[in-house]
Design goal:
The complex is a heterodimer of chains A (869) and B (425). Chain A has a 5-stranded antiparallel sheet, covered by helices on one side. Chain A has 869 residues and is of the alpha+beta class. The longest helix of chain A is centred in the N-terminal third of the chain and has 17 residues. Chain A is globular, with a radius of gyration of 34 Å. In chain A, β7 and β8 form a beta hairpin. Chain A has 38 helices and 13 strands. Chain B is an alpha+beta fold and 425 residues long. Chain B is built from 7 helices and 24 strands. Chain B starts with 7 loop residues before the first strand and ends with a strand. In chain B, 38% of the residues are buried. About 3% of the residues of chain B have low confidence. Chains A and B meet through α2, α4, α7, α9 and α13 of A and β2, β4, α2, α4 and β7 of B.
Chain lengths: 869, 425
């Protein structure tokens, strides 16, 4: 290398242009194959001054590669760059400004501003376009510089509009720009929140034609905008239904694209099918697997097929699945067998056919097919008790071939569960016992339980067996879980066999029909990100590295007039644009946090005594039930602002438990007012509640006051007192609360938004002098201004005061009423407000100042909601 | 915040060595690409290959083309569908520049590849990706067109970004090809599992100036699309247009109006979801006598109009991988054994409608059997039928208006081809 670079050096300094160019080419060739040619830096830079475009491009390329490692030398190139930005040839001007933006060396960036300013006003549109992208690059390197230098204004001049978010301009531009530009415009539109359904519809009408674009990314971005704005359209309107029908064909067409495009489409369709199954419910056939589909496409199609399976198409689906189960790819075959089981559980009418299909598959004796089939049959048994047990004999024939823990455990569970119908159940289970210590924990635990079940059912013949397993589990095992379970059974059996029977042989809760559903709030967020990596991985967007702008958590918009505004910060107009860069816990952390918490059954407090716990007895009696009743009727109680009751946890997501509720603040205390309804067929007991860490440290003051079992179709009203002494973690949105509720069936999670007024404390009135001093003291950039529109009120102060927003002073300036107000949050944060009301004008102006300005938008939402209630 | 795409783009050879790369945003370390190939091999071994892979914060979005991997890296929540569309565009542009896109063409043309990478994307934003336009200012022999290259084609920034001004032809003509490709899947019992028609209208435009074109199709096709006419058997499920077609105009009055790109392009494609029977019906009997032989009998029948003829018919019949010593007998055409694909290919140059032909094949099997599980691929049929479309689509007119007022001739051709009719045996 040494000698070759010596020759190159000589050639680079050759007088002849052609020789020079050939030399630079050789340098680039060496660079391309990974050789370090940085030592030639000065010689290459010397070649920069040329009118040969190709040579210049090569030198620029070299500079981009090595400038970072040789910043001091890179400076040598600055003069040439600046000169090239004024070259008569527009290609060279553009090339220079483009390359300068790519060299992320501070010293070069400093010199970039002047040429960039000129290029933004260049006579050639190509140069202007390149310069505009360069502003984005500069913003990424140094956002402050872009602001200071006024480049944003220059950009606005470029589009000849002072308002860059002019929606109409964007929509018109859709018809005039390149396919790539259309994608960016559509992605931009998807961040916009229409004022009302009429605007939403008119945007949809202008976006819909993009569904016919040949570029699949344009189509998917258009789908994103439409899926988001659909939320704002009334469900019973003709337009809504027309739009739904229009979405299906383009989604199907994406499946005739390249395999990678199909994959992205399928992952997104998986979300769309969960959000709005009606769009593709007629199209199940297009998800049938093709022989030559790549495996990643096959697996995704299978998943969507099961989601779309219904009584209407189950025959076709089963015929397909049966075909798949005889293919060669092991993973695919397993998933197909599992899918048959899921169909049985989902579509009751098909269960019988599914079971017989599974039996046919078991007859093939293909080892992994048999094992997978046995695992799903266990679930079918649980879903339809006392229906298909006649096949147990066939299953038992395959006992010896099972070598996977899942399958062994499933088989053992079946034998234990139906021990009374299997003549040789004891022999079968005993055969597993021989190699007990070689089994996986899962198998050991299942075997232990199965033998205890057997013993409870046939005590006379199996005493020896149960003793054997108990001693294996408790005395010969190092596994604490196994030992503990062994001891529990042992105690139970030895002290109270009747109770043991009740516990071990108790009725089992139903298993849910749908599996692998994405948590609804995440689903909504992913719908807002259709086409992006997050929606391909099905991971929250916060799991990715933030851009220089921070992450805006996106929510589906909410239709006005039907649900409160507190749910959706984006629907609140001006507040939506506030940047909130902050750390958001990823989904994994959340679950981890919640699961690690001790969700034990509630401390068994006798019914009477719980009423004596401080806060609780304040509620006992009239006011509590009165308030709650008024909440239920969806009314406001006087001036006190209360929130609509909402369904937080629908029964389908929680195995029959429905939780609806709202938050309130009464006499200085916070409450979570909830109604638990049992929509399952079995009773529910052992309720407990736990909150994840949240921004305001909210935790329940008492355990859930539910002490009697909740019978099927019964409901109970609960007022859970809250306080704010719990652990604090900043959430996004700030008022987000993640809740886990446990009962005897399972643990369920939901998240909800706490309306901020619940945190407005009673002693939120600031002294006049303090107010003035504080207002001055808080920096001006913390002041945020909002519009409260269409407000017709007389008693503004009174209404606000009932919600702990205190008016400190009132002035009349030039015919306008200025109200100065303060409020304080439970965590001691003060918010200072100036409310400007012009007589005859229904639009109020609200200025908020706060040392923690991120709360301002939530406070604004409360103002808006209270004044309009 | 703008939507994000690729941070960098790499072209790798089959062993994972970087042939050429371009760093667009500088927010992902370029050495991260070293993990790509390891991940790929790992996933391949596990049989869980996926077009998106990640290592730490970095995500790899990749496609494979001949003996190359094209990989985009990002650490943001990028628009994945944009990235794939862009990678396929890269393949298209490189192919038009170098005829074949493969390892050698990248190595032989690295200077132009760098130039193109620089021009196709800037800071993660795809720019001009139309190779016709790019060829006007990025040429393969830089020195030859020195003068011309001092000008940027205005097309790059025009609203009409796909056609340059000042194009001249002595004779103004447009060739319109209507090509329909049918996909039918038949299961072992002979019932049609799925069938669809994918149609495409391709143009070869040789017109001067900036002509305004309007394409008229028989009404029922397009009205069916809006759901106004459900009576007829054929309905277009979905239509996709080249970016030159005014989509809002089509949405409002069903007019297909556009300024065409010069030369060849696909103007539109459509999908018809209708029950069609296979045009060439296949019946087969495959008898396997373990340890000795396989006997194959295939019957093919042309189920289309007697006046039509299917050309270049190829019927591909899978055989066991350990089969040997083939013997064939055909009533027409000839059969050939392709051992590397485990196939017998029966070719028939021309196959008239209504006719029926037979092929018999005999293979020996080794006495020691192959125990590996083999897939059961379907019998695949390929053919072309000229002057005929299954859907009945017709070009009614093509209006060509250019301000110079020249007369231009449109030519129309119809072809139906098999997108692979398949039948499981």
């Amino acid at each position: 290398i040494q000698s070759s670079s010596y020759f190159l050096k000589a050639e680079l300094n050759n007088e002849k242009k052609e020789k020079k160019k050939e030399a630079v080419k050789k340098v680039i060739a060496a660079m391309t194959v990974g050789k370090d040619v940085s030592s030639l830096f000065p010689d290459v830079v010397n070649c920069m001054q040329t009118d040969n475009l190709e040579l210049k491009k090569l030198v620029y390329l070299y500079l981009m590669n090595y400038a970072k490692s040789q910043p001091d030398m890179a400076i040598m190139a600055v003069n040439s760059f600046v000169k090239d930005c004024e070259d008569p040839n527009p290609l060279i001007r553009a090339l220079a400004v483009r390359t300068m933006g790519c060299i992320r060396v501070d010293k070069i960036t400093e010199y970039l501003c002047e040429p960039l300013r000129k290029c933004l006003k260049d006579e050639d549109p190509y140069v202007r376009k390149t310069a505009a992208v360069c502003v984005a690059k500069l913003h990424d390197i140094n956002a402050q510089m872009v602001e200071d230098q006024g480049f944003l204004d220059s950009l606005r001049d470029l589009i000849a509009d002072s308002n860059p978010m002019n929606i109409n301009k964007l929509l018109t531009a859709l018809n005039e720009c390149t396919e790539w530009g259309q994608i960016f415009i559509l992605d931009c539109l998807s961040n916009y929140n229409p004022k009302d359904e009429r605007e939403a519809q008119s945007i949809c009408e202008r976006v819909t034609p993009r569904l016919s674009h040949a570029n699949s990314a344009v189509v998917l971005s258009a789908v994103k905008v439409l899926m988001k704005f659909l939320e704002l359209l009334p469900k019973d309107s003709d337009y809504y239904n027309t739009l739904l029908k229009k979405l299906s064909p383009p989604l199907v067409t994406l499946l005739s694209g390249e395999p990678e495009v199909q994959y992205v489409a399928l992952r997104n369709i998986n979300l769309i099918v969960q959000k709005r199954p009606e769009i593709l419910k007629q199209e199940i056939k297009v998800f049938f697997v093709k022989y030559n589909d790549p495996i990643y496409v096959k697996l995704e199609k299978l998943d969507i097929m099961i989601r779309l399976a219904s009584h209407a198409n189950i025959a076709q689906v089963l015929a397909e699945l049966k075909e798949y189960a005889t293919e060669v790819d092991v993973d695919f075959v397993r998933k197909a067998v599992r899918a048959i089981g899921r169909c049985a559980i989902k579509v009751e009418q098909s269960a019988e056919r599914c079971v017989s299909t599974l039996l046919d598959l078991i007859q093939t004796k293909v080892n992994y097919v048999v094992q997978e089939a046995i695992v799903v049959i266990r679930d079918i048994f649980r879903k339809y008790p006392n229906k298909y047990e006649s096949i147990i004999a066939t299953l038992c024939e395959n006992l010896d071939s099972l070598d996977e823990p899942d399958a062994r455990a499933a088989m053992i569970w079946i034998v234990g569960e139906y021990a009374e119908r299997i003549d040789n159940a004891d022999e079968l289970l005993e055969s597993f016992l021989e190699g007990f210590h070689d089994e996986s924990t899962q198998v050991q635990l299942t075997l232990l339980t199965a033998i205890v079940k057997l013993f409870l059912k046939k005590p006379s013949e199996t005493q020896e067996l149960v003793q054997q397993v108990l001693s294996l589990a408790t005395q010969d095992s190092d596994n604490p879980d196994l030992r503990d379970r062994g001891y529990i059974y042992w105690r139970l059996l030895s002290t109270d066999p009747v109770t043991a029977k009740e516990v071990v042989l108790s009725e089992k809760p139903l298993i849910s029909e749908e599996t692998d559903l994405i948590e609804p709030t995440l689903l909504d967020e992913l719908i807002c990100h259709i086409g992006s990596l997050a929606s391909v991985y099905h991971k929250p967007p916060s799991a990715f590295v933030e851009g220089s702008h921070g992450i805006h958590r996106k929510h589906l918009p909410i239709q006005h007039g039907s649900i409160d505004t507190g749910e959706s910060p984006v629907s609140a107009g001006p507040a939506a644009s506030i940047d909130q860069p902050q750390v958001i816990p990823s989904q994994g952390d959340l679950l981890g946090d919640l699961l690690n918490l001790d969700l034990g059954p509630p401390v068994n407090v006798p019914q009477g005594s719980s009423m004596q716990i401080g806060a609780v007895d304040l509620l006992g009696g009239g006011l509590d039930s009165l308030v709650r009743q008024s909440v239920k009727q969806r009314w406001y109680s006087g001036d006190l602002f209360l929130w609509f009751v909402k369904v937080w946890l629908p029964a389908v997501k929680a195995k029959g438990l429905e939780i609806s509720g709202t938050f309130s603040r009464r006499q200085g205390h916070m409450y979570m007012d909830m109604t638990f309804t049992n929509k399952a067929l079995q009773h529910m007991t052992d309720f407990a509640i736990q909150f994840n860490k949240n921004s305001f440290g909210v935790i329940p003051t008492t355990p859930l006051p539910v002490h009697t079992p909740l019978m099927p179709s019964q409901s109970i009203d609960i007022s859970l007192p809250l306080n704010t002494i719990g652990p604090v973690m900043k959430m996004d949105p700030l008022n987000n609360l993640q809740v886990a509720v446990k009962n005897n069936i399972d643990v369920f999670y939901f998240s909800t938004l706490i309306p901020l007024n619940v945190f407005f404390v009673e002693d939120g009135k600031m002294e006049r002098q303090v107010f003035l001093a504080t207002w001055k003291d808080i920096p001006n950039e913390n002041e945020l201004q909002y519009q409260i529109k269409e407000c017709h009120l007389n008693a503004v102060s009174g209404k606000l005061q009932n919600n702990n927003i205190y008016t400190i002073a009132k002035r009349n300036v030039e015919g306008q009423d200025m109200l100065y107000q303060s409020l304080k949050l439970t965590n001691g944060i003060w918010i200072l407000a100036e409310l400007r009301i012009q007589p005859g004008n229904p639009n109020y102006t609200l200025s908020l100042k706060c040392r923690a300005p991120e709360v301002s938008q939530y406070v604004y939402q409360m103002y808006d909601a209270i004044l309009k209630s | 915040a703008w939507s994000m795409s690729a941070s960098a783009v790499f072209v790798l050879d089959l062993k994972g060595k970087v042939l050429i790369c371009r760093n667009y945003k500088g927010d992902v370390d370029m050495s991260e690409i070293d993990h790509f190939f390891t991940l790929l091999v790992q996933q391949e071994e596990e049989g869980l290959l996926c077009p998106v892979m990640s290592h730490g914060n970095v995500h790899f979005l990749w496609i494979k083309h001949s003996n190359l991997y094209l990989v985009a890296t990002t650490n943001k929540n990028s628009n994945a569908s944009l990235v794939y569309a862009f990678l396929y565009k890269l393949v298209e542009v490189f192919t038009e520049y170098f005829k074949e896109l493969e390892e050698e063409s990248i190595q032989d043309n690295f200077v132009v590849v760098y130039e193109l990478l620089d021009e196709l994307m800037d800071f993660g934003f795809p720019q001009t990706t139309d190779s016709k336009i790019l060829q006007e200012y990025i040429t393969q022999q830089g020195n030859k067109l020195e003068v011309a290259k001092t000008k940027v084609p205005t097309t790059v920034t025009n609203a009409v970004s796909w056609r340059s001004e000042g194009i001249r032809y002595k004779k103004n003509e447009v060739f319109i090809d209507v090509i329909e490709s049918i996909n039918v899947l038949v299961n072992a019992n002979g019932s049609v599992m799925s069938s669809d028609i994918v149609g495409s209208i391709k143009l070869k435009t040789m017109l001067s100036g900036m002509p305004e074109l309007r394409l008229g199709l028989n009404d029922r096709m397009l009205f069916a699309l809006t759901g106004r006419d459900k009576g007829k058997a054929v309905t277009m499920e979905d239509v996709k247009f080249h970016q030159c077609v005014r989509l809002s105009r089509f949405e409002s009055d069903r007019t297909i109006s556009f300024i065409p790109p010069d030369g060849e392009s696909e103007l539109m494609s459509y999908r018809i979801n209708t029950h069609v029977k296979p045009l060439i019906w296949i019946e087969s009997v495959i008898e396997k006598f373990s340890h000795s032989r396989v006997e194959i009998m295939v019957k093919a029948k042309g189920q289309f109009k007697k006046q039509s003829v299917a050309n270049n018919v190829e019927i591909r019949v899978p055989v066991p991988s350990d089969a040997d010593s083939p013997k064939f007998k055909t009533s027409t055409g000839h059969a050939k054994y392709v051992p590397e694909k485990n196939l017998v290919v029966w070719s028939i140059k021309s196959f008239p409608g209504g006719k029926e032909f037979l092929m018999r094949a005999h293979f020996g099997l080794p006495s020691v059997e192959n125990h590996e599980m083999e897939g059961r691929p379907p019998i695949t049929v390929k053919f072309e039928i000229p002057y005929f479309t299954v859907s009945g689509i017709q070009v009614r007119y093509m209006k060509i208006i250019e301000k110079s007022g020249y007369q231009a001739l449109p030519w129309v051709r119809y072809i139906t081809q098999s997108g692979g009719e398949r039948r499981f045996a």
